[in-house]
Amino acid sequence: DVLMTQTPVSLPVSLGGQVSISCRSSQSLVHSDGNTYLHWYLQKPGQSPQLLIYRVSNRFSGVPDRFSGSGSGTDFTLKISRVEPEDLGVYYCLQSTHFPYTFGAGTKLELK
Amino acid sequence: QVQLKESGPGLVQPSQTLSLTCTVSGFSLTSYNVHWVRQPPGKGLEWMGRMRYNGDTSYNSALKSRLSISRDTSKNQVFLKMNSLQTDDTGTYYCTRVVRKSYYFDYWGQGVMVTVSS
């Protein structure tokens, strides 16, 4: 199975600040069709995960442009600028290039 | 609008079989894929398996021997059955939708909490 390593585990932030979350995969996430199926989710307390970014860098409908994704191959980053209270929660990366799909262990974004 | 809703027993005894239903609305099971994902309390997410739009299924190899996913398109329902439950199967179980060839989960159900305990 593809191991997804997310860092850091916990990320203290001040409102209005900027943060980055790293996600590294144990093998390349480039699919045979040429696409890279690496996505980012936010799970707020008591809620289901919600899609933020799909295929590395595409914002899902309604996601503010404060969220951006980048990366390639095995190394990916989610950046959040001008952090707002509703951004707090646990962030997960997901790879769906290889079966079984696998998630990172999560990064908890919390207030300093 | 697109909705998925999981239902099933909140408590299952060890060694018994878990049966969950995902009832969908706002889209057709013959056009979209539905996956199951679970989450132990306070822990991360685990992909379990999927029902494709054409009726094909795929399973996480770690669960394959215990897991079965089926559907009833006339009722807009996808079913999960997992046998030989143990305490570490306790958690929240989600069904989620995937647009064909997109490979990402765009809509999720609210989840159903399942506790395995005697």
Mean pLDDT of chain B: 96
How much of the sequence of chain A is in beta strands? over 45%
Average pLDDT number of chain A: 97
Helix tally of chain B equals 0
Number of helices of chain A: 0
Number of strands of chain B: 11
Radius of gyration of chain A: 13 Å
Beta-strand content of chain B:
over 45%
Q: What's the helix-strand series of chain B?
A: EEEEEEEEEEE
* Estimated helix fraction of chain A: under 10%
Number of strands of chain A: 11
Can you summarize the main beta sheet of chain B?
7 strands, mixed
What structural category arises from helix and sheet content of chain A?
Answer: mainly beta
Which bin fits the share of residues in helices of chain B? under 10%
Give a written overview of the molecule.
The complex is a heterodimer of chains A (112) and B (118). With 112 residues, chain A is mostly beta strands. Chain A has strands at residues 4-7, 10-13, 19-25, 38-43, 50-54, 58-59, 67-72, 75-80, 89-95, 102-103, 107-111. Chain B is mostly beta strands and 118 residues long. Chain B is built from no helices and eleven strands. Chain B has strands at 3-7, 11-12, 18-25, 32-39, 46-51, 57-59, 67-72, 77-82, 91-99, 105-108, 112-116. In chain B, the strands form two sheets. In chain B, strands 2, 4, 5, 6, 9, 10 and 11 form a seven-stranded mixed β-sheet that branches. In chain B, strands 1-3-8-7 form a four-stranded antiparallel β-sheet, with no helix packed on it. In chain B, a hairpin with a 5-residue loop joins β5 and β6. Chain A binds chain B through residues 1, 35, 37, 39, 41, 48-51, 54-55, 60, 92, 94, 96-97, 99-106, and chain B through 35, 44-47, 58, 60-62, 94, 102-106, 108-111.
